[in-house]
């Protein structure tokens, strides 16, 4: 059976069809402009916007509508203390960064895992957040620790899994097989490493 070829993005007319394939952000931006859609946001926000347009004809995707917040707390300039409660209006601001540096030192840096924790733990306090940050740093000190890779970052996850399974290969091999892999369709829209990828040509 002939291998299904990656289509021209302009020929796709359904969200499901669009999401079967891997697209570069530059390709999605060009298609969004062609369709008269917003081009702001991360890669997957643009993908969802195009898919929603194909399926509904609406140029405004649900993810384009910012959720309403009940809190008026201003994370940019409000005084922060360990007792400050995380609100649904929380933002990673310079004010927050200064607070954490005052608590854990100048080495403090936001990372994906910690930013997700802050976003998902409304109702806890900044003291709880400091404790969680310190716990994360302890986990990172473990020689076997692996950082969290964001769900949407398929290439980084593919790289880790590929090199873990093929320690004698290098990044040139990763890029070669990733290029072959991402050219294939995927029912769930994700392209993950499989040992059979080494048979791709």
TrEMBL record:
Entries under Pfam families matching the protein: DUF6434 (PF20026), SAP_new25 (PF18953)
All copies of domain DUF6434, residue ranges: 73-135
Protein name: DUF6434 domain-containing protein
């Amino acid at each position: 059976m002939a291998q299904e070829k990656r289509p021209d993005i302009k020929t796709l007319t359904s969200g499901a069809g669009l999401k079967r394939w891997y697209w570069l952000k530059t390709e999605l931006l060009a298609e969004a402009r062609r369709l008269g859609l917003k081009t702001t946001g991360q890669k997957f926000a643009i993908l969802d916007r195009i898919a929603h347009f194909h399926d509904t004809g609406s140029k405004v995707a649900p993810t384009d509508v910012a959720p309403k917040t009940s809190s008026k707390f201003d994370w940019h300039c409000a005084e922060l203390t360990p007792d400050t409660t995380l609100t649904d209006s929380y933002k990673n601001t310079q004010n927050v960064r200064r607070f954490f540096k005052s608590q854990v030192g100048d080495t403090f840096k936001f990372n994906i895992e910690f930013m997700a924790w802050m976003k998902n733990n409304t109702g806890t306090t900044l003291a709880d957040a400091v404790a969680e940050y310190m716990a994360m740093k302890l986990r990172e000190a473990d020689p076997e620790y692996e950082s969290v890779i964001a769900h949407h970052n398929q290439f980084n996850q593919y790289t880790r899994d590929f090199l873990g399974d093929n320690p004698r290969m290098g990044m040139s091999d990763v890029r070669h097989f990733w290029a072959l892999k991402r050219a294939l369709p995927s029912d769930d829209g994700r392209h993950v490493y499989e040992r059979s990828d080494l048979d791709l040509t």
